[in-house]
Amino acid sequence: MEKIMKKIFPLLILVALSSATHADIKDYLPDLKGVLPEAKIKPEDASKWNVGAGVTQQMLHVNGEMVNSYGIAYAKIGAFYNGDHKLAGQIGYRIPVALNGTDKNGFYLGVYGGTLKSKVVDGSDEVQYGAGGDLSYVLLNKERISTFSVGMGAGNELHDQNGNMIVETRPQIQFSYTLSGGF
User: Fold this and answer.
1) Strands 158-159 and 165-167, how do they pair?
2) What is the rounded CA–CA span in Å between residue 166 and residue 149?
3) pTM of the model
4) CA gap 106, 128 in Å, rounded
5) Looking at residues 62-82, what average pLDDT do you find?
């Protein structure tokens, strides 16, 4: 499973980064009205680049967020606060599905991938890699992005040196809060 995640993780990075260029190249594509999602975020609604911090499950992190017309791409890097503080990170993308108010506050659906948890295996901490989807409530305006998120994902199995399964692949819930400021 770890080999599969090492192949999937770069693909998730490519998808997240390519969404940034999608808005610029759409002028050169044939008319895809009704196929492409509706652009709900205008450039004057939010800062394009945002930096902040947060907590995701057992991970304390700094995060960078990029807002485009179709949603929010983000990357988190930090460490687990349990065990020996293994390096951790996640990337993801969220699209607005139900907005309310004058700002672009509302519910966003997203996908994420990266490190999910850290567990002691044979006396050292091992990291579980995985991916999933989330439902978030995002408070978004020109000065800040504040995100409360609940996700469901699954990660790779972790085995000890005897082949005993320590962490199995099964659905797991993920809670997250981030606060970012725009510039």
Assistant:
1) antiparallel
2) 27
3) 0.76
4) 31
5) 92
